[in-house]
Amino acid sequence: MRMRDEMLARLRAGDVPDILIVGGGINGVGVFRDLAAQGVPALLVEAGDFSSGTSAAPSRLIHGGLRYLETGEAALVRESLTERNLLLRNACHVVHPLACWVPLRSWLAGTLGAGARLLRLTRTPGRKGAVAVKLGLMLYDAFGRTHQTMPDHRLLTAGQARRELGGLAPDIRAVAEYYDARISHPERLVMELVADAEEDCEPSLALNHVSAGRQTQGRVTLTDQLTGETFTVTPKILINAAGAWVDEVQAGLGFNERLIGGTRGSHLVLRHAQLAEDLGNRMLYFETDDHRACLIYRLSGDRVLLGTTDIRSDDPGDKLCTEAEIDYLFAVLRPILPGVCLSRSDIVFAFAGVRPLPRMKAGATGAISRDHRIDEFAPTADRPFVTLALVGGKWTTYRAFAEQVSGRVLARLGLGRRQSTAGIAIGGARGLPFDAAGRAAWARNLAQETGLQPARCAALVDRYGSRARAVAEAEAADPARFDALPDYSPAEIGLICATERVARLDDILLRRTLMGFEGHASRAILREVGTVAARSLGWDAARLAAEIERTATLLRERHRMSIA
User: Fold this and answer.
1) Which terminal residue of the chain, N or C, has fewer Cβ atoms less than 10 Å from its own Cβ?
2) Domains in the chain, start-ordered, CATH in brackets?
3) Is residue 156 predicted with pLDDT exceeding 80?
């Protein structure tokens, strides 16, 4: 990727495409990528960092949405399962199969209600027993046949389940097992999609920390959030992919209608060795007494992810996990794993984000559709460009959503589609073997070629896929290590700063790497990483000190990390 300063220079010179995408989360970047694959360049601007909003706060699942069957959204489930299977292949470096267990307390409960919800006679969630869940999973398996890569579901008796996970509550009567997938580093996949788009279509231009403001007679004002410098562009098509901020962007364009009615979801990353060992490579996906869906699964080592809440919020910047939500998440786990004792001292990282759901004034939050739609607004005399507002959407279906949006754009431009992105590997999945054994052999070959230790190369491949080669070569040339952070290297961080459009220290801690998410943050770490960033990006001592202080405050206040 080119440096951010080079991108800004192109913006100053007016060397920009006619299509403006506002929002650098997964949906905006997905559209950017799909258009580039058709040879159609776009200018994408993101007010924060790429994938710093809702796209950074998911349950990190790539899934079909089993519970969407309950709200009658069978078409969404079918689409989600197809896209899940594609991502398992196209992003095999960061998307991996995950066994999912649904603990059940009854065999027959909710069977009639589940049928009514599937037929869309009602959307209110309700209790479900083993028969209802099995019927749903049979349909789930059938929908997932396209590009299938994982086994079908099975039903375990209580005895069978407890032989594998002894801590299940005594009133669990059965467990349904099925497979979905998890994404280890969603923010990295967003960055790789940006890089792939710019590689395929050189005029494409993506800028982080640049916001879109008001438009006047077709001229949209853009502001560099780091320097205050302003620019104006005159798009022919504007795509509002701002997620939870869609309504704010619409207001700047002169629209008054509210499109988004968000809900906040909060998650906790816990350090709990025994719980991680007990869970193994499975996720518990369970229903709460208030008919919400929560989950817990092992991330790696002794880290566990617990989520999620679902609370209405009209503030797109509502990113704080509250004390009440922590109490709620701890409380809903007890009926499933009564022997597990959790405390706030187990929390190493907390995160929250507002889901950009379609506006719905009343009803259960779990009944709000997770499907996506495109609202199109024709040009007017004082706004002479087409506006496409993207409403809803989820991580798993971003590619299909992007294809639908770019289809609208291509039709407006009178162009045909060159290719589908369905078969295109993403970023570090290019040239990487699909199977785990093949990836392990690839990492061993990398160790032989660079002289690095095999374990280190394996870790780099887990992080970057085939792009681990560039990191390994940089480390071979500069073998220095951090004192406070042995899992990362100065050469690795320097390469990230030079090639991944880093502008702030927290871009590195929270999105280009998993340092924050894994609970690796201290003043010493911030100083070491910040010093490398300063050297790469030309920060002076005052800027470095400000970045360290800003990042420490952010990690402490928003993510509950202990940084003095």
Assistant:
1) C
2) 4-54+187-260+370-423 (3.50.50.60), 94-184+261-359 (3.30.9.10), 434-559 (1.10.8)
3) yes
